[in-house]
């Protein structure tokens, strides 16, 4: 991925020529459409054969119209960023605020009371994808099997995934705490434990300026602030995360800011990306957006990791001036992340709807089957309602009011016809439902 050039090459001559088209409706239609989609200069340049004037003139008009919308400004130490609340942002945020949580809750309740299962599954997905973004190589199937069976890691990549999973569970535990530099260090330490060549890099801020963000070809994409700035910027990051009194920023937008700013500072020698994504989860959960417990945004980011990197680059390379200071444009990063969040929501809803349909079909078969008696239907109904429960013979004796022999016969019969499987537990058998996890 090549370095994106900064969009500062707008001369007075370009502006003069561009203004000649200010009343050309065809040109203004392009300006409006490209600003609605919030295209970057590089994207405009690639469309030179489709637009009626030189790309640089169209870009000048696009920037002029963007300024008139009075973008919101975030001052972060000596660094300044701005963002524009696009109409699509308002629509996506409305979906997340109003309809999404209720819809998700109703589907989960319809399937099972066992919400913990879906939270743990989401944490697994998030841990795996967030690690894959940083280069971990185990496949999703292998990684989930490792996490489900609590296997010991065999290499650095597997350790990275296990660390990420355990850290995400830790983030759930601390979601109501204030963010501090010490807590941020603890998150990074948990993320990176046992994965550094030098263990002293765990849980400490970087003390050097050798850190760069490179692409696959060795091109420098981002040079973080100097090491001397790290401590102060991290403190300011924590204050920004904890303080909502100065001015209102929608919590999901603010969570995206925190994700970006952590990676902009790049305060650690490694683990910045994973820590930044976990910081986003901490913040939105702190603000009671519990639906994120069931969603893996990193899974969508991993699928679109090229666009993810471009969102960083577009933000840093496109800017305005404010009293001779460059102002990076966070709109690109917000746009990418909000899209990933909505797509993640659609994925989990689709997954749960499939599970709901599977449950419906299982119950339909059970009620219509001539293979099952009344007791066996009730046993199977409990397993379908609680897919990860285990059941012993004595439980069937107590709930069905039957003898040991009858209870044992019912469970073994359900195993024989392919609904249950038995597992040895001490001197007795425990029975579990046969099902396929996604």
Automatic annotation (TrEMBL):
<dbReference type="Pfam" id="PF08220">
    <property type="entry name" value="HTH_DeoR"/>
</dbReference>
<dbReference type="InterPro" id="IPR040198">
    <property type="entry name" value="Fido_containing"/>
</dbReference>
<dbReference type="GO" id="GO:0003700">
    <property type="term" value="F:DNA-binding transcription factor activity"/>
</dbReference>
<dbReference type="InterPro" id="IPR001034">
    <property type="entry name" value="DeoR_HTH"/>
</dbReference>
<dbReference type="InterPro" id="IPR036390">
    <property type="entry name" value="WH_DNA-bd_sf"/>
</dbReference>
<keyword id="KW-0804">Transcription</keyword>
<dbReference type="Pfam" id="PF02661">
    <property type="entry name" value="Fic"/>
</dbReference>
<dbReference type="InterPro" id="IPR003812">
    <property type="entry name" value="Fido"/>
</dbReference>
<feature type="domain" description="Fido">
    <location>
        <begin position="179"/>
        <end position="336"/>
    </location>
</feature>
<keyword id="KW-0805">Transcription regulation</keyword>
<dbReference type="InterPro" id="IPR036597">
    <property type="entry name" value="Fido-like_dom_sf"/>
</dbReference>
<protein>
    <submittedName>
        <fullName>Fic domain-containing protein</fullName>
    </submittedName>
</protein>
